[in-house]
Structure formats: structure tokens, C-alpha cells
Amino acid sequence: MVSNKMLSALNNQMNAEMFSSYLYLSMAAHFENVILPGFAHWMKVQSKEEWGHAMKIFEYVNQHGARVTLEAIDKPPATFKKPLDVMKQVLEHEQKVSAMINSLYELAQKKKDYPTQVMLQWFITEQVEEEKTASDIIETLKLISDAPSAMIMLDRQLASRES
Ligand code: FEO
């Protein structure tokens, strides 16, 4: 039995995932604007993935007979700095999301809510992957520094991310 407290916490997480989607879409708009289409593509794919995370929770809450409540999504920032700063922002954001997922897992453990623990394990694995991907891009951007040709190559590489 999934408790009301757990369902309400999941509803909040769904909203946080929607905000992530919105944040990355705003970053995509920024990269389109500064003519880095590969980075923009990467962010659009990331935004779609985040929406998928929100929908995973949406379906789970529904499955347990609870009513999903859609809340307002916070406005994401509209101005960003260099690609390295943006990717650092991504990593920081993902670390925050990981902490939120871990708190949800702790609540599920406290409530002896095994189905929710199983569902959240998928998110825990996903967060490890997302933090690693952002860290890897950050390391590449540090190596590139401000070399334009290397930045163009990275942009092309990011353009090949599958959606
Ligand atoms: Fe759905 Fe990137 O956390």
C-alpha cells in the first residue's frame, strides 16, 4: 500500500522532473541562439527525457489509484553563460535531483513501501548515468578551453545524441 504521504511526495517529484524538462529546453533555446546546434540538440533530447521521467511518476501515481495534481512549473532562467558554465549548472541540477530521489527512497524505506522502492531504483540508476554524462562533457569542455575548432567538433559530437 502506497501511503498518501508517499504519493504526495511523488507528485512533487513529478513537478521537479517537469521543471528539469523546462530548464533544459531553456538551455536548448540559448544554444540555438549562440549557434551551437549540437548542444541545442543534446538539451532538447535531455528535455524530452525529463518529461519522460515525469510521465513515469504520473503513471505510477495513477496505477495506485491516486489523483495526480498538476502544479505550476517554475520559470527557468533565460540567460546563460559559456557552455562550460551551462554544463556545470546541469551537473549541479542533477546532483540536486539525485538528493531528492534519495530522500524519496528513504521515505519509501521508512514506510516499508516496497513497490515504490523498486520503482525508484530505476531513477537512482538513471541519476548516476546523468551525473556521469554531465561530468564527462564538463571535463571535455575544460580540455577545449576556448579553442573554437575543438568546440565545433564537440558540438558535432553532441548533435549525434539519439533521441
Ligand atoms: Fe529526471 Fe535528470 O533527472
Describe the structure in your own words:
- With 163 residues, the protein is mostly helical.
- The chain contains five helices and no strands.
- It starts with a helix and ends in a 5-residue tail after the last helix.
- 78% of the residues lie in helices and 0% in strands.
Attached small molecules: MU-OXO-diiron
User: From N to C, what is the helix and strand string?
Assistant: HHHHH
What is the first-to-last residue Cα distance? 35 Å
Query: Which residues form runs of ≥5 with pLDDT under 50?
Result: none
Overall pLDDT level? 97
| Rg over CA atoms | 17 Å
Largest sheet: none
Give the overall shape: elongated
Strand-pairing-aware structural class:
mainly alpha
What percentage of residues falls in helices of 4 or more residues?
over 70%
Number of strands: 0
Explain the layout of strands and helices.
Elements: H1 4-33, H2 37-63, H3 83-110, H4 114-144, H5 148-158
Bound molecules: MU-OXO-diiron.
The site of MU-OXO-diiron has 7 residues, from α1, α2 and α3.
